[in-house]
Specification:
homodimer; mainly alpha; Arc Repressor Mutant, subunit A; Four Helix Bundle (Hemerythrin (Met), subunit A); 3 domains; three-stranded antiparallel sheet; 13 helices; about 65% helix; about 5% strand; DNA-binding
Chain lengths: ~300, ~300
Amino acid sequence: MARTDDRFRSAYNTLLDICGSMGVGEQLPPETALADRMEVSRTIVRSALQKLDTEELIKWEGRRKTLIRKPEKKHRLALAESAPSTEELEQRFLEWILRFDVPAGTALNVAQLSRQFGVPAHSLQEFLASLSRFGLVERGQKGGWTLLGFTAEYAIELSEFRMVLELNAIRQLLAQAPDHEIWTRLEALKSDHEALKEDIETRYHDFSMLDKQFHMTINSVVKNRFVIEAQKVISLIFHYHYMWDKTFEQQRNAAAIDEHLELLNALLAKDSERSEAAAVRHLRTSKETLLSSLRDHKLV
Amino acid sequence: MARTDDRFRSAYNTLLDICGSMGVGEQLPPETALADRMEVSRTIVRSALQKLDTEELIKWEGRRKTLIRKPEKKHRLALAESAPSTEELEQRFLEWILRFDVPAGTALNVAQLSRQFGVPAHSLQEFLASLSRFGLVERGQKGGWTLLGFTAEYAIELSEFRMVLELNAIRQLLAQAPDHEIWTRLEALKSDHEALKEDIETRYHDFSMLDKQFHMTINSVVKNRFVIEAQKVISLIFHYHYMWDKTFEQQRNAAAIDEHLELLNALLAKDSERSEAAAVRHLRTSKETLLSSLRDHKLV
DNA sequence: GGTTTTGAATAAAATAATTAAAAACAATAT
DNA sequence: ATATTGTTTTTAATTATTTTATTCAAAACC
C-alpha cells in the first residue's frame, strides 16, 4: 500500500451523513457541489459514490444519484486516529531532548524516532529539516541527522538572542499610544503577579504559566513573523526548563516575581531607562537559571 | 532501483588510483585501512574489491589482495554529476522567486520544482520544510506547499528584523577592545569605500559585493548561531534585490557609499550615538530601496 | 447555443518497498 | 592477543505504487 485512504474514509462518512439527512428516492447533489461541500476533490466524491452504489445505498446512473435506503451505523468506515500535529511533535521532541538529557552529537535515527513519536518518518524528516534552521540538529555528511544542542553554549547564545529580541520588544512597547490595549494587559499582569506573590508559599508552581504569559504579552507588540517564530522556540525551551528544574523552585520564583513586578512598574511608568535595566536584570537571572539547571542535570 | 551507487563509484575510482600508485605483485592494505583512508564504510570497500577481483585487476583470496596488473583509464567508472548543495538550492530558489516575481499564494509543485532545480524531490521537500521556519512557505491543508512571500509586508518585517539584529551588532562592535581585529578590518573597509567612491562612475557595479562585505563585517562580531542563521537569509534576499534592481543604480550606490562611510567613521571614532543614527539612516534607505524595487517589479 | 455536469486521462503527493551503505557482531588468521 | 575478514542487521536514500487532485473534453440538460 502507498498513501493512506484516510481522506476517502472520512469523506465517505460525511457523505453517509448527507444521505442520512435526505429522504429515500431523493436525488443527491452533483459531484462538484458535494466536493465543494466536503472540501475534497471530485475524485474522492466519485469513489465514495461508487462505494455507495455497490453497497446499494444509492442507484447511480449517469447524473442520476437516487437514494435507495437510509444508511445505518454499520455502514460507517473506521478512521485511523490522526498523527500528532507539527506543534505537538515539536513539543514532544524538545521534551525528549531536555528530559533525557540527550547529549550533543547523538546520531538521530529517523525510523526509530518516528515510531517513538508516532508520526510518519516523512513528517519527522521534515521536522528535523525545519529544526536545522535553529541549529539544534544538522545533516550528517554520510547522511542521517545529528543532534547539535542542547549544550551550555547553545543556552548562552539562545539567552543572548532572547535578550536582543526582548529589549527590542520593550522599546516598541514603550512607543505604543496610551489607549493601546497593551497597557490594560500590563495592569492585569501586575495584579496577577501581586496575587501570586501573596500566596507564593502554596502556589509557587503556578509561576511557570505566569512567566510564559508575561513574556508573551511583552513580545506581543512586535508584529514580525521572524521574531514570532524565534520566540516560539525560545519560550518552549525556557518553559521546559522551568518545568523540571525543581531546585530552590520557591525562592527562585519569588525572586522572579519581584523582577517581573519591577519591570511592569517601570513599563507602566513609561520609564524607558528603568525598564531596560529591569529587563536586562531579569533576563540575566533567567539565563543563569537556565545554565545552572543544565549543569545540575549533567551531573545526574 | 533504490538509492544511487555514486558513493560506490567514486570509491572504486579512488581505489583504482591507489592501485595505480602501487607496483604489480604488491599487497593492498587491509579493508579497514582502506575504509578509513577513503572515508567510506567497509561495505563499499569490499564491493569495490570484489569488482577489482572480477575485473582481474587484483587477486583476492582471504586477506591476501595482490595487484595483478595496473588499472587503465577504461576501468574508471563514470560518475553522475552530483546534485547541487543545499546552499546552491537555496540561492537558486530565492533567485527564482525574486527574478520571476512569483506571487504570494502560488502553489509550489515539488515534482516540477525538483526537475527544474535538478535535485531529488526528497531534497526539495526538506528544503521547503526548513524555509517554512522563515515564513516564506507553508504547508497546504490538502498537502503540498504554498509560497507565502515575497510580499511588501514580508520585506518590511525582514527589514525591521534586520534593523534589530544590526543595531545589536553595532552595540557589540563598539564594546570590542581596541586591539580587536575588527578595527583594522573597518579601516580596510573604509579605504575600499573611498577607492570605489573615486571611480564610482565606472565601477558602480562593484558596490553590490562591497555592500555584502560591509554588512558581513559588522555582523561578524556577533557570535550567535541564531543571529548568523537569520543573517544568511537576510543577506541573500537583500543581495539579490541589489543584483537585479537596476533603476538609478549609480546614484543609489553613490548615496549608499556615503552612508556606509558615515557609519564607518562614527564606528572608528567610537561614537555610539552617531553610529546608531548612521546605521538607522542607512538601514531605512535600504528598506526603501527594497520596497520600491518590489513595487517597480510588480508593475512589469 | 450555452451552461452545467460528468467521464476519463493526467499529474502530483504520501507512503511502502527496495536497494546502497553503514555499523555491529562473530569468526578466523596472523 | 590482536588484527583482519566474513556475515548479519540496521539505517537511510530513492524508486514505485497507490491515493488524491486537477484538467479537459464529451455529454446532458436547460
